[in-house]
Each structure stands twice: as C-alpha cells, then as structure tokens.
Amino acid sequence: MKKTYIAALAATIGLASALGTAHAAGYPDQPITLVVPYSAGGGADNAARIIAQGMSEVAGQSVVIENKGGASGAIGASYVARAKPDGYTVLYDASAFAINPALRKLPYDVKKDFVPVSQAISVPNILVAAPGSAFNNLPDFITAARANPGRYTFASYGPGSLAQMAAELLKKDAGIDVVHVPYKGGAPAIVDVMGGQVDVYFANAASSLNYVSGGKLKALAVSSAKRMPELPKVATVGEAGIKDFDVSEWNGFFLPAGSDPAVVAKLQDLVQKALARPDTREKLGKLGLTAVGSSAADFAKFVDAEQVRWAEVVKANNISVN
User: Fold this and answer.
1) Core-most of 26, 29, 232, 283, by most CB within 10 Å?
2) What is the separation of C-alpha 109 from the centre of its chain, rounded to a whole number of angstroms?
3) Rg, the chain, Cα only
C-alpha cells in the first residue's frame, strides 16, 4: 500500500512537472494582461502602451493594458499579487513600488508576493523653478535655503511620490529645511511652479523637458548621475556638490510569486526583445524615456536597493503620508 502511494505521488509530481515545462515552452499562447496601477494617460500608462505594442508584435499575442489606479499603485499591485501565477497577469509598476512599503500599510509584501522580471525604462528628474526665479542653479537654491530654514517650498505630484522623495533626499544630504507642497498630479504642480507659487520641483523629464526647452521653466539641476544629452549645460545634483546623488524614475515588470522560473525567463526575453526594437526605443525616446530591459536578477537587486534607500530617507526625515 505504501509503495503504491509513493509511486502514485511520484507520478503526480512528474506529471505536474511535465505540464509546467510544456506550459513554459508554449508561453505565451494566449493574451497577456498588463496591469498598470495608475490612471490612463499618465506617464507609466503611456510607456506601458508603447512597450505592450512591441511585445505583441514580438510574441504574436495580444498584450492588453488594464488600468487599476489608486493608493499610489497599491490597488493594482494587490490585484496582481492575488492573481494566478501563470504568466498571463503581469504588473507594470513604477518607482512607487519601492517607496510604498516605507510609507504605507500594504495588503501585500513586495518581497514575498512578487517576482521582478525586468526594468523597462528609466527617466531622470529635472529640478525646475519659475523662469523669473532668483535661483539660476542648485547651489543658489541650497545657499538660500540654508540661510532661511523653512522659507522655501518644493512641489510634488503627491505624498510619497518620487518627486517628493528626491527632494527629501536632497534635504537630507544638503542639510536644508524646505517645505513640501503636494499636488494631485504633475500638471498642477508644474503650473504653480511656472507661476512662482512654489519655488522648486523635481519634475519628471518626460513632462518638463519641453517646458524647459521653451523657456517656461528654468532647469537648476538634473537628478541623474550623468548630464542629460538634451540639457548638456545643466549640471547634475552630484556636480553641484551633493555626493552620490542619483535618482531616476523607473518602470518595470513583475509577476506574482510562485510563477514558473521558465515563464519568468520567457517574459524577460519578450520584454528585452520588445525594448530592443528601434520603433519602440524611438517612441519612448520622444517621451524622454530610456529603454533598459534588464535581467530578472539585476532588476531584483535594483528594486531591493531602491527599497533600502527610500526607507532610510523616510526614517531620517520622519516622513508620513497621513
């Protein structure tokens, strides 16, 4: 009886393994749902639609965008965390994925409930001010802020956003005290910075570069480690004296925990091939976005480092979203 049970169990395990291998070999053989946990028309959504088109053409299968916005991405992420781990429900999240755990009580565990697949894109932020601002560069702003604690303000497109966190990191590293003014989106934040109602804003390059080029915003610094090719005369925050400052917004692909490693590898390959397409890269480039297409292992390390960094900033600056 015992031998019969063991034989039956072994056969079941063998069959499951064979089915899993067959599933991975044929992946994707049905449409993929790409869950974007933000509203339609936003930065992440626009990038996701461009990449999804490239993925569809590479795979010969539809990649359908499903927007599930709310709670800084937590609603959509929670939905994917509970989804069947078969590779057909995929999360396309942004920098908030790594920031949320330090600020919010979440209905999921970012480390245990997801498998990172690939970083899709990266885009630096530009520290901008009104055209008539007295500040011409970041050292000007830091000098004034140090001399007048609590007098100056910085905008963000919402509490816990990367725009806030980049400014909070600058506050910590530069030893300045400036006041956060959160908005319900990037558009109203930019409008008030243009008008001088708020002093500075770490604006996403994709949404602010045209305003800078058109003279409607003044660029004080860029947040990336290297200067932007589009703004060769604008120094980085690091060049302005804030050592090791390197902040970029990012988007990436995640699968639910328990996904077959072979399926993870297949999806990683699909994303990389889509991002390598000249038409995909050109469309992303027009939005100021740089295609990345990292490996699952490299993306996992990157996300872990992001979580550690923002948790430290939240703790050091005593940040709360309540």
Assistant:
1) 283
2) 17
3) 22
How many CA within 13 A on the CB side of residue 259?
Answer: 32
Give the closest residue to 177 by CA, choosing from 203, 211, 153, 205.
153
- Could you give the C-alpha distances from 120 to 27, 31, 48, 92, in angstroms and in order? 20, 20, 9, 9
CA 312, CA 215: separation in Å to the nearest integer? 36
Type of residue found at 35: V
From residue 298, alpha-carbon distances to 210, 224, 245, 274, 303 in Å are: 32, 19, 20, 18, 9
User: Do the beta carbons of residue 91 and residue 76 sit within 8 Å?
Assistant: yes
pTM: 0.85
What letter represents residue 191's amino acid?
V
Q: Which residue carries 């009580």 as its tokens? A: 105
Look at phi and psi of residue 70 and say left if phi exceeds 0, alpha if psi is from -120 to 50, else beta.
left
Return the structure tokens found at 251. 């988007």
The rounded distance, in Å, linking the Cα atoms of 89 and 82 is 10
Separation between Cα atoms, residue 222 and residue 244, nearest integer Å: 13
CA distance 84 to 214: 47
pLDDT at residue 17 in the model: 45
CB 89 within 8 A of CB 80: yes
Read off the pLDDT of residues 288-311 as tens digits, 9 standing for 90 and up.
899 999 999 999 999 999 999 999
Integer Cα distance of 6 and 26 in angstroms: 30
